[in-house]
Specification:
The structure is a single chain. It contains 14 helices and 31 strands. It is an alpha+beta fold and 535 residues long. The chain has three domains: 24-80 and 95-280, Rossmann fold, CATH 3.40.50; 287-385, Beta Barrel (Elongation Factor Tu (Ef-tu), domain 3); 402-529, 2-Layer Sandwich (Alpha-Beta Plaits). The longest helix is centred in the middle third of the chain and has 14 residues, at 227-240. The structure holds guanosine-5',3'-tetraphosphate. Guanosine-5',3'-tetraphosphate binds at residues 28, 30-36, 54, 56-57, 99, 150-151, 153-154, 263-265. GTP binds at residues 96-100. Keywords: Cytoplasm, GTP-binding, Nucleotide-binding, Protein biosynthesis.
Length: 535
């Protein structure tokens, strides 16, 4: 079913373009330096003239990856966007992910759209909670991971100790490509383990320009750095003995992770990371459809929606659906089919969006991300295709753990209220649950992390003009049930059954004991667990 039609573009073009693509996301715990690294990467690729004067979040002009008021106020990244740039002969797509745990569902969706991930670790903190969760998602999805140990210019852990931590806690064998010269806090540079050369660390003023790289042969490095160089060489030799050399097959199989040491704020290591992405990270590969058949990248156009977003910018009050192209060539203006409804969808307004910047996309290839403007019919997880029909598997919705009733404060604004709630639902900001008992004016919002409520409240008021109040409900668990079981489940004490927008019936329980008791007493009832947020 996936390969019955002739490809929509000459084979060599789509294949060679796909082969040039490197589509990845940076995963990290908040504060590890993701925004700084993103800017540094963009600077390196000369997308922006100078990194947004990286002198602390408060003073920042607004990094290219953050734009919502709330994000700025809180200094966290909630929304996701994609940055595209050329580096060497490759086209790099960097997808932004929110760092905060409360938005893990959002991050999960972004990770369905990448071919590799960069795990950014703070040298002083090592692997933190959110890094581990995101890493679990990468492992689950078989995404190859490149590790960057950041902030080596600041006192932190020992390099070998960090490698042990990566190996013990992730199960991946770290294969350092560079090794630090000088302990953390005394960053002299790195030993390139592939050719033994020394790359000297030079600070740039505020990291606002590309750091000039000084590369020296081993003898000159020894003369310059003395003991620090000798230690680095010895430690690197220790690594040689522990199978810590890069092996491309094992990397792609998710068994090893190449590691580099960096100082994103000084732009050091950023060029090395880009080189690794181009040289080692995988290009787009055939994507399995809902039946498990892989659709070749050269098959006719197909893409899936991994993110829907609106109201990003006061000047552009519109709704964007971000698609990741899975196969074929996208040409602006082409009419494609929306797999869910079978209806045609015109792609007249297609844009690259990053931060506040937008530019029209005329043509795009597998691996690329395109923002479709005013794509009101598109929901997260939907498939678009041309010629040969395909449907990609729906994106996983996580088990919500927090529930609240949402009501409009102003009854005269019911229309705005309904529109806003519908929008938040289709973007996946919150799952919207309803029941006859609660009525249309008081649906229940179900979320993975409580900060999603804040986003919902903020957006209902500021974007849809419908101020709302939130009343938290005491439930902590949602399980799937069905129409046959629903009446008996709903009759149990402390349990409520509601219907999600997609028709799924969810039973909400206060705690796992209530759930267990009901299951034990009535084993015939359908009560299926949902995918846990932490996988
Ligand atoms: P995030 O997006 O992962 O949350 O992190 P972000 O880039 O905002 O970086 C968090 C802080 O860490 C920033 O300092 C940033 O300048 C700093 N930072 C990032 N990379 C490096 C690095 O390589 N070396 C050093 N020394 N610092 C780095 P900030 O906004 O001033 O926050 P704070 O330090 O005042 O708390």
């Amino acid at each position: 079913m996936t390969t019955t039609h002739a490809p929509s573009a000459p084979l060599p073009e789509v294949l060679s373009q796909a082969a040039r693509r490197r589509t990845f996301a940076v995963i990290s715990h908040p504060d590890a330096g993701k925004s700084t690294l993103t800017e540094a990467l963009a600077l390196h690729a000369r997308v922006i003239g100078s990194a947004g004067a990286v002198h602390g979040k408060a003073g920042r002009r607004g990094t290219v990856s953050d734009w919502m008021d709330m994000e700025k106020a809180r200094g966290i990244s909630i929304t996701s966007a994609a940055l595209q740039f050329e580096y060497r002969d490759a086209v790099v797509n960097l997808l932004d992910t929110p760092g905060h745990a409360d938005f893990s569902e959002d991050t999960y969706r972004v990770l369905t759209a990448v071919d590799a991930a960069v795990m950014l670790i703070d040298a002083a903190k090592g692997l933190e909670a959110q890094t581990m969760k995101l890493f679990a998602v990468c492992k689950h999805r078989g995404i190859p991971v490149i590790t960057v140990v950041n902030k080596w210019d600041r006192p932190g852990k020992d390099a070998l100790e960090l490698m042990d931590e990566v190996s013990e806690r992730t199960g991946l064998t770290p294969t350092p490509l560079t090794w630090p010269v000088g302990i953390s806090g005394d960053f002299r540079g790195v030993l390139d383990r592939r050719d033994g050369s020394y790359h000297r660390f030079t600070r740039t003023a505020g990291g606002a320009t590309i750091a000039p790289e000084e590369v020296l042969p081993a003898a000159a490095a020894l003369a310059r750095e003395g003991d620090a160089w000798t230690t680095a060489v010895e430690e690197s030799e220790l690594l040689d003995a522990t199978e810590a050399d890069h092996d491309q097959e094992r990397f792609l199989a998710g068994e090893t992770t190449p590691v580099i040491f960096a100082s994103a704020v000084s732009n050091f290591g950023v060029g090395a990371l880009l080189d690794i992405l181009v040289d080692l990270a995988p290009a787009p590969t055939p994507r399995p459809d809902a039946e498990g058949a892989a659709r070749p990248v050269e098959a006719p156009f197909s893409a899936f929606v991994f993110k829907v977003q609106s109201g990003m910018d006061a000047a552009h009050r519109d709704r964007l659906a971000y698609i990741r192209i899975a196969s074929g060539v996208f040409e602006r203006g082409m009419v494609v089919t929306h797999s869910t409804t079978g209806r045609p969808f015109a792609t007249k307004y297609a844009q690259h969006v990053f931060g506040r910047d937008r530019e029209s996309v005329d043509v795009a290839y597998p691996g690329d991300v395109v923002g479709l403007v005013n794509a009101n019919a598109l929901h997260v997880g939907d498939t678009l295709y041309a010629d040969a029909k395909v449907t990609y598997p729906p994106l996983t919705t996580f088990a919500p753990e927090h529930f609240a009733v949402v009501r409009g404060k102003d009854t005269a604004k019911f229309k705005q209220f309904r529109r806003g709630i519908g929008q938040l639902n289709s973007e996946g900001v919150a799952q919207v649950l309803r029941s006859d008992r609660r009525g249309d004016a008081a649906p229940v919002l179900a979320v993975v992390g409580p900060m999603q409520f804040e986003v919902a409240v903020h957006r209902m008021e500021n974007e849809f003009g419908a101020p709302v109040s939130i009343d938290h409900l005491p439930y902590t668990i949602a399980v799937r049930t069905d129409a046959a079981s629903a009446p008996a489940v709903a009759a149990a004490r402390g349990v409520e059954v509601l219907q999600r927008e997609d028709g799924e019936l969810l039973a909400l329980f206060m705690d796992k004991w209530d759930l267990r008791t009901l299951q034990q007493r009535n084993p015939e009832l359908t009560l299926e667990p949902m995918v846990a947020a932490q996988l």
